[in-house]
Design goal:
Arc Repressor Mutant, subunit A, 3-stranded antiparallel sheet, about 50% helix
C-alpha cells in the first residue's frame, strides 16, 4: 500500500473540499465492487493498472468494470492515462488525502485524539 501523507491541520473545507464532493466520493466508494477496484488501485501505487489487469484480477467483466471505473473517475478518486493502446488507471493521491483529511478533521468534534489518534498526522500512516 502506498503512503498517503495527510493534509495539514489548517485544512480549509471551503477551499479544498465541499460536503457535496465528499458525498460524491463516499457514494462512489459505497459499492462493494468499486471499493474492491479502489483498493486494488491503492495497492498498485502511482504507476496504475491496465483495465485488463483489473478485470482479470477482480474477475469482473470489462463492461461492468468500465462502469465502476467511470464512477470512481467522475468522483475524482482515480484517473486514467493512455499508454499506447492500454488505459492505465491510478488513484489521485491528492484527492484521497483531501477526503481523509475531511473525515479526520471532524473526528470526535475536531479532536482526533479523542478517537484514539494521538496525532492527527498519524491517522493517515
Amino acid at each position: 500500500m502506498i503512503g498517503l501523507p495527510c493534509a495539514s491541520r489548517s485544512f480549509d473545507y471551503s477551499g479544498n473540499m465541499e460536503e457535496s464532493q465528499a458525498a460524491l466520493m463516499l457514494a462512489a466508494l459505497g459499492h462493494e465492487a468499486r471499493l474492491s477496484v479502489f483498493r486494488r488501485l491503492i495497492a498498485a501505487g502511482p504507476d496504475g493498472v491496465p483495465a485488463g489487469g483489473l478485470s482479470s484480477a477482480l474477475d469482473m467483466p470489462p463492461s461492468t468494470l468500465s462502469h465502476h471505473l467511470a464512477t470512481l473517475e467522475h468522483a475524482g478518486l482515480i484517473t486514467s492515462n493512455r499508454d499506447g493502446r492500454r488505459l492505465l488507471y491510478a488513484i489521485v493521491p491528492s484527492e484521497v488525502r483531501t477526503l481523509l483529511a475531511f473525515l479526520r478533521d471532524d473526528c470526535c468534534g475536531g479532536q482526533p485524539s479523542l478517537c484514539g489518534l494521538a496525532d492527527a498526522t498519524e491517522a493517515c500512516r
